[in-house]
Amino acid sequence: MKKILLIIGTILGLSLLYTSCNVNSDQVPKFNEKDAFVGFTTLIYTVDEDFCTNPQKGNGQNYKIPVTLASVSGLVSSVKIVVKDSTAIAGVNYILKSGNTLNFTTDARTQYVEFEIIDIPGEFTGDFMFKIEITDGGSVNVGSDNICSVKIADMDHPLSSILGVYIANGCGYWDGDYSWNVTIKKDDPADGKAPDLSKVWLYNFIEGGQNVDIYGTVNAELTEIRIPMGQTTVLRSGAQYAAMVGWHVFYYEDGTVNEDLDDEVYDIQDGYNMVVYIENDGQKMYLPPLYEFGSYIPDEDAWYNILLPFPVPGGGKWDYDMNRPMMTLIKN
Predict the structure, then answer these.
(1) How far apart are CA 143 and CA 67, in angstroms?
(2) Which residues pair with 38 in a beta bridge?
(3) Lesser CB count within 10 Å: N end or C end of the chain?
(4) DSSP 100
(5) What is the DSSP letter of 119?
(6) Can you tell me whether residue 126 is helix, strand or coil?
(7) In whole angstroms, what is the distance from residue 232 CA to residue 265 CA?
(8) DSSP H or E segment with residue 8
(9) Domain 35-153: what homologous superfamily?
(10) How far is CA 95 from the centre of its chain?
(11) Considering only CA atoms, which of 332, 329, 331 is closest in space to residue 169?
């Protein structure tokens, strides 16, 4: 009798479980076609001014910005867009090629706003901006992502020869020789201020999870980047985290030894710069073995991703050699 009751209880339990699952599945929200909308997939685009003329970029093709209609069944709609000048002027910096109407069909749920980007070669004009706005969704709603900005990047920046991605090689304290990517970018203030044409920003200069660009100043001859020591290299939970680039100077730029080293304190003097030397019109850069640097957290007396002068093979000493860089960057 107990076995029969057990079997009946098990069946009832499974039945309740199945019923419960069905109830939950009925409560899953479904997309209603009355909620169908059209919008941009990205709100900020950047295109090089020579995109349409450079064979390695657009190679004569128009620059295309996607617009997507979100629908389950694939609704048909004619969507209206307008293009608004800012610093970029229609007919001078760009030409709208696709017209002001995008026609969506069941089989074409993504359409493209197409532009010819007009290059002004050999003249530094600065970047140009314009906007695109979806003004009428036709038979569907206009989504919240209905305005996007387009930046036309000037390729005649005075520092253009040293901008781009570099493969960095260095000697790490724990890992020995290793490689990573460093990106050098032009100054481009987000607050609308004029850019500093002598300043560059270095992303991932110290490899290993850092997510804050550090800056350096380039000399007029394009042979040096001077990077002020002590810049913050890490943000944690949206707040500035006290991790800094560099903390010891082993040797000064003239090759003389810094005798005043203390392992327990931040030893870089105010105003001290690390100097990255530029060669071959920006195709190669190197950092001589003058410094000990990485990300250092004074409050915790902690550090990571330290780069040091090259060790003497088989020995425990450090060997100063201006001809043997501690870090090199080769343009990718």
Answers:
(1) 11
(2) 69, 142
(3) N
(4) S
(5) P
(6) coil
(7) 17
(8) helix 2-26
(9) CalX-beta domain (2.60.40.2030)
(10) 28
(11) 329
Query: Which regions of 193-272 does DSSP assign to beta strands (E)?
Result: 199-203, 214-218, 224-228, 232-236, 239-245, 248-249
Q: Give me the residue label for tokens 């290299």.
A: 233
**Cβ atoms of 258 and 250 closer than 8 Å:** yes
Distance separating the N- and C-terminal Cα atoms of the chain: 79
Report how far Cα 86 is from the mean position of its chain's Cα atoms: 24
Q: Where in the chain is the domain with CATH 2.60.40.2030?
A: 35-153
Q: How far apart are CA 296 and CA 117, in angstroms?
A: 45
Q: What is the pTM assigned to this prediction?
A: 0.71
pLDDT in tens, the chain (332 residues): 434 434 334 434 444 444 444 444 455 455 577 889 999 999 999 999 999 999 999 989 999 999 999 998 889 999 999 999 999 999 999 999 999 999 999 999 999 999 999 999 989 999 999 999 999 999 999 999 999 999 999 999 999 999 999 999 887 777 677 889 999 999 988 777 889 999 999 998 877 655 678 999 999 999 999 998 878 776 665 555 556 676 667 666 676 777 666 655 555 666 678 889 999 999 999 988 777 676 666 666 666 667 766 554 444 455 556 667 888 999 99
Residue type, 235: L
- 115 CB contacts (<8 Å, ≥6 apart)? 62, 63, 64, 65, 94, 95, 96, 97, 98, 150
- Contacts with 18 (C-beta within 8 Å, 6 or more apart), sequence order: none
CB 150 within 8 A of CB 131: yes
| Cβ pair 39, 142 in contact under 8 A | yes
Residue 119: both structure tokens together: 């290059």
